[in-house]
Amino acid sequence: MLALGAAAGMASAQPSLAQDVEPLKVGVLDVAAKRVIGARDGVDLVYKEFTAEGRDPGRWKTPAGPDHGEVVASTFVEQFRRLDRKRPMVIYAANAFSMKKKDDGSTALSMDYEKAREALPWMKANGVRVVVTAFNTKSKPGSDLLMDEAEKLGMIVFAGGSNTGGAGKVFPAADPRSVSVVDSGPDMALRKDASIASWIDFAMDGTVVTGSRDERSREVGSSYASAKAAAYGSYVVSRQPDICVSDLKKVMQVAARPVSYTIGGQSVQVREIGGHEVDAALVAHVSVSFPRQAPPPATRTAMLGAIASSGMSGR
Fold first, then answer.
1. Cα–Cα separations (whole angstroms), residue 135 to 128, 174, 178, 215, 237
2. Alpha carbons 56 and 65: distance in angstroms, whole number
3. Which fold does the domain 2-6+15-294 belong to in CATH?
């Protein structure tokens, strides 16, 4: 993998972008997504800090060691590769989280809403339409800063729902302008809180395995479910670049499975995505609905020049 940027001395560790295919570009708004885990041919990453001046950017480690954002980015890549094995990718990763002191003197990781909003024009200027975020808050005004900007720029935000349930709506997942996703795993909130089904768009298994070969860790959560779902959305957008968020949801619903759960004696139905059957259904539907057109050529030299001139930093 190669982290693109203006910094000197960087070299490619893996074969990178094809010369004649327009790369898929996706945004990851998360914590310290500075790399894609594992050997990923044709996957490049550009990372930029948007944390407030003077604040610790913060880290959110998984038990196996990688930062949360690294797992989200890697989960997206792995899922997209199941739909399209050949298309090169560039991930534009932005960190707008930081460690903030609480009233009791302790510190906690929190999203800087203004900085999160600033990250979107940077992504948009680099050709990103789909963004996946771990941003999850009870503060609708804070979420609105992000979603108002996304709507203005014509960007599509995939947002994870609650992992615990019982706390009511969380944003931006509960904002109808987002594509909201909740982990459908057996121990997750969807199996405990029937109200989630009323404001979520899709359910998906958020289980991922991270870490080295010697130290594997099983992670679960709506953050990873939303990353997988964003890969589905990105596949559709790659074939129909001007699709709006409501139409994108309709396309994904065609491939989704209606699944019923009984929660506290109440029967609820959700649309679940994921698995070979759904993968095949989505690819087939998109192939018929949006026939592939020859993309404009994208040379690696041109892309490197554009990134360097924008002043972006690498890893």
1. 18, 12, 12, 28, 22
2. 19
3. Rossmann fold (3.40.50)
Burial bucket for residue 23 (CB in 10 Å: 0-12, 13-18, 19+):
buried
pLDDT for 61 equals 59
Residues in contact with 87: Cβ distance below 8 Å, sequence separation at least 6, in sequence order? 21, 23, 24, 42, 80, 238
Pairing of strands 97-101, 107-111: antiparallel
- CA distances from residue 309 to 226, 298, 304 in whole angstroms, order as listed: 32, 17, 9
187-242 pLDDT, tens digit each: 676 777 778 888 899 999 888 876 555 555 678 888 999 999 999 999 999 999 99
- Domain regions of the chain by residue span: 2-6+15-294
Q: Which residues of the chain fall short of a pLDDT of 70?
A: 1-20, 39, 52-65, 165-167, 187, 189, 210-217, 292-315
Is residue 194 within a helix (H) or strand (E), and if so which, with residue range? none
**pLDDT attached to residue 264:** 75
